[in-house]
Description:
With 281 residues, the chain is α+β, with helices and mostly antiparallel strands. Helix content is 46%, strand content 21%. The chain is built from eleven helices and eight strands. The strands form two sheets. Strands 2, 4, 5, 6, 7 and 8 form a six-stranded antiparallel sheet that branches. Helix 8 (217-235) packs across helix 10 (252-263) and helix 8 (217-235) packs parallel to helix 11. The chain starts with 5 loop residues before the first strand and ends with a helix.
Amino acid sequence: xxxAPVILRHADILAPxxxxxxxRAALSPARPALHGHDFxxxxxxxxxxxxxxxxxxxxxxxxxxxxxxxxxxxxxxxxRGEHALVVSVTLHPDLVTDLARRHPDLAGRLFWSGAxxxxxxxxxxxxxxxxxxxxxxxxxxxxxxxxxxxxLLPIICGxxxxxxxxxxxxxxxxxxxxxxxxxxxxxxxxxxxxxxAAGKAHPHVSRSMRRFLDMSPSDWIxxxxxxxxxRRLTGSADSLAxxxxxxxxxxxxxxxxxxxxxxGQTPQRFRRARQRDVVQP
Length: 281
């Protein structure tokens, strides 16, 4: 009969007054025993390959993989090959619980997903650089509730912002492409940019989008373009022609049509209402 899993306690890791603690660990290639914890854990694969063991199976994680583990989750990490390095941040349960109370829209996501296993995501090289800079600030700065929240909130914001409303059975590549399409460098190229981000042939991408989101790649791209346009119209004095070009829609007539469909107003009226009400109420 297997031994009962070890349960790690935040009282043994966090000093009095601390709400976060960061650890860098080189992983052993030995198969690990599963463990749980009474705290929340944010961990990512900094280098190499890692095997993530779960009660009902295992998965291989590459560099850039991020894990959000909650209370009651059992898992174990095993190095695969040389130089497998993981960064782990212990988060006080009160900190994470309080964030959910103050931000109800976090329900069902990340630490608050309610899933039986940790949530796994992927970061690209630029996002990993941002994550590592945040980790360095946490290491060198305060670890009380304010410092821990200053570390965690931008990360959560970035992770949730890039989530796509895809069903669980959707392929990982499609979720990554939907997230990548929020970048102007991608949506400026239209559906071709989406297919490039997906790394798949355009017909296959179109069929998958129809199956899982009931829309075309162009529909998704235009939604990201018009969301970006709305932010630029409110936050800048740039001309409509400049903003339309940034969106990859240099034809102003088409830009107006897309914007009205997305926001129910012309771009000019949208801008006047929001800039006037903020600057000269």
